[in-house]
Amino acid sequence: MPRRRSEMGLGMTLLLLALALAVRAEGGAAVAEEVKIEVLHLPESCSPKSKKGDLLNAHYDGFLASDGSKFYCSRTQNDGHPKWFVLGVGQVIKGLDIAMMNMCPGEKRKVVIPPSLAYGQQGYEQGKIPPNATLIFEIELYAVNKGPRSVEAFRQIDKDNDKKLSELEISEYLKEEFARDGKKRHPSVHDEILADIFKKNDHDGDGFISAKEYNVYQHDEL
């Protein structure tokens, strides 16, 4: 698959309207569905806050809201290493992309994700998620790094300044970020992230990610 100030305390509940998604109910009426976020723990120092394009490192457990049964636990996957993924580019379900925005390292959240922002009417047989299932995730975020989606990162990665990123350039960038983080992780994590970046961004299949393919922000300029 997976701040505010100290006086607000442990167990603080913050319900955020993370997204109002207009979906058509039977009869044509519009229904707004949202991700509900409960902040379970907030560190005194909350920096940096996660944003679209950041490379996140997190553990999360997934439960069915209907009966509380657990369908996913990142601690039992990949030898127990936290998950690495780029936020906001579809590497996780839409609801998690929304739920983990503006989150800081060390923060813990409990989130409720409606079916339209999870696996919808089709469900997910491999994860034993039935159709139209509301999901609950408990998330602990460990690291927020500048991911290979920001303009600043693009310029850092593009060593030869040719306005396109090669596999070697992105590979070296990921290695540098992992080294800065200082945590040991299986080499497959690097390979999986690199492969996923090219799969989702090398739209013309030429083996490079151009500035246009890479740039997901309308206001960013390269």
TrEMBL record:
It catalyses: [protein]-peptidylproline (omega=180) = [protein]-peptidylproline (omega=0). GO terms for cellular component: endoplasmic reticulum. Residues 53-145 form the PPIase FKBP-type domain. Residues 145-180, 189-222 form the EF-hand domain. One of its GO terms (molecular function) is peptidyl-prolyl cis-trans isomerase activity. InterPro entries: EF-hand-dom_pair, EF_Hand_1_Ca_BS, EF_hand_dom, PPIase_dom_sf, PPIase_FKBP, PPIase_FKBP_dom. Residues 1-22 form the signal peptide. Keywords: Calcium, Endoplasmic reticulum, Glycoprotein, Isomerase, Metal-binding, Repeat, Rotamase, Signal. Its EC number is 5.2.1.8. Pfam families: EF-hand_7, FKBP_C. PROSITE patterns: EF_HAND_1 (PS00018), EF_HAND_2 (PS50222), FKBP_PPIASE (PS50059). It is an enzyme of class 5 (isomerase). The keyword Plastid does not apply. PANTHER family: PEPTIDYL-PROLYL CIS-TRANS ISOMERASE FKBP7 (PTHR46222:SF2), PEPTIDYL-PROLYL CIS-TRANS ISOMERASE FKBP7/14 (PTHR46222). This is peptidylprolyl isomerase. It comes from Penelope pileata.
